[in-house]
Specification:
single chain; about 350 residues; alpha/beta; 11 helices; 13 strands; about 40% helix; binds uridine-5'-diphosphate-4-deoxy-4-fluoro-alpha-D-galactose
């Protein structure tokens, strides 16, 4: 490999930290850019504990092009940029749309400017299946139409994908992929890194583990009267380690391309599970019952979405290897390790 160094923005975050581990396992040297707005510095030490390699860290805001330009200049040749850093709370984005538009779009644009200035060719962007809204046909392929976004957060992902496409048209050297994540869950099997939700978790699995450990009184299932087999919503839950490995596959895929390109890939398991199935699987894996109650629907929830992952399987040469059981077991280990840390 010529250039081993690779910029990982948001590299101390949930998906970013797992990706740093897999990049190091594959022989890369991640350079983390993070402002630690929604992540913790000890995670960088944990990456070192798992892999034996400590990534260097640039503590900066990804939208701060001037600061970043002066630092990136000193890094020398780079294999590419993997851009995770973004605000990601759907509900909060409705209350603070300008924060979301500014942070998410300015930082993506700044990363592309860095690529232009320093002649970096490979770009991996964190997108989301939220761009599909409620798809008309399931499983959803990359050809499915992008629907009008339900939230400012979702719109930032759509806009950033369009920004990359426009930049590609103007810059024939660019090799870029947008990776549309379905529902990432779980933690590293070492229980040294995992998700650190700020405050009360919005997402299902962190809420389940916090309820099971006693940090939350009970879990509310948001609606059981949907048009699905058990009445609860269906999602495609992917183990974060499988997702992290897909980023390594994506960067290798880009390095192998002779000419510029912009491509989009779904990253999921290809399988849908209902909220009740996740709860039952969790109870089985940890051997304890969960206190859950059925509540009203959550506004804005899509009924069901799961991925067709054949494009990523074929073109990236990647497929998932871990199950829902594995992910819930690892999420539970991680929750327990946090308790021990306190
Ligand atoms: N749910 C509950 N109770 C909870 C939390 C969630 O029943 O306390 C349900 C939700 O109603 C939904 C399912 O669990 O049916 C999954 O909810 P999550 O909040 O975990 O995930 P979402 O699918 O709503 O959102 C995720 C990401 C978003 C992304 C979206 C794309 O968190 O960033 O997928 O569809 F935009």
């Amino acid at each position: 490999m010529d250039n081993k160094k690779i910029i990982v923005t948001g590299g101390a975050g949930y998906i970013g930290s797992h990706t740093c581990v897999e990049l190091i396992n594959a022989g890369f040297e991640p350079v983390i850019i993070d402002n630690f707005f929604n992540s913790e510095k000890f995670i960088v030490d944990r990456i070192e504990q798992i892999t034996g390699f400590k990534p260097s860290v640039i503590e900066a805001d990804c939208a701060d092009l001037n600061t970043l330009s002066s630092v990136v200049e000193d890094l020398g040749g780079l294999a590419g940029i993997i851009h995770f850093a973004a605000y990601k709370a759907v509900g909060e984005s409705t209350a603070k749309p300008l924060d979301y538009y500014y942070n998410n779009i300015a930082s993506t644009t700044a990363m592309l400017k860095l690529m232009e200035i320093f002649n970096i060719h490979n770009f991996v962007f964190s997108s989301s299946c939220t761009v599909y809204g409620q798809p008309d046909v399931l499983p959803v392929t990359e050809e499915s139409p992008v629907k009008k976004a339900e939230s400012p957060y979702g719109r930032t992902k759509q806009v950033c994908e369009d920004v990359i496409a426009d930049f590609k048209k103007a810059n024939e050297d660019l090799r870029a992929v947008s990776l549309r994540y379905f529902n990432p869950i779980g933690a590293h099997p070492s229980a040294l890194i995992g998700e650190l939700p700020l405050g009360i978790p919005n997402n299902l699995v962190p809420f389940i583990t916090q309820a099971a450990i006693g940090l939350r009184d009970h879990l509310t299932v948001f609606g059981d009267d949907y048009d699905t087999p058990d009445g609860t919503c269906i999602r495609d839950y992917i183990h974060v380690v499988d997702l992290a490995k897909a980023h390594v596959a994506a960067i290798k895929y880009l390095i192998d391309q002779e000419k510029g390109l912009y491509n989009i890939f779904n990253l999921g398991t290809g399988q849908g599970n209902s909220v009740l199935e996740v709860i039952k699987t969790f109870e089985k894996v940890v051997g304890q019952n969960l206190d859950y109650r059925i509540g009203p629907r959550r506004p804005g929830d899509v009924v069901q979405v799961y991925a067709d992952v054949s494009k990523a399987n074929e073109q990236l040469g990647w497929k998932t290897g871990l199950s829902l059981e594995d992910a819930l077991r690892d999420a539970w280990r991680w929750e327990n390790s946090l308790k021990e840390k306190k």
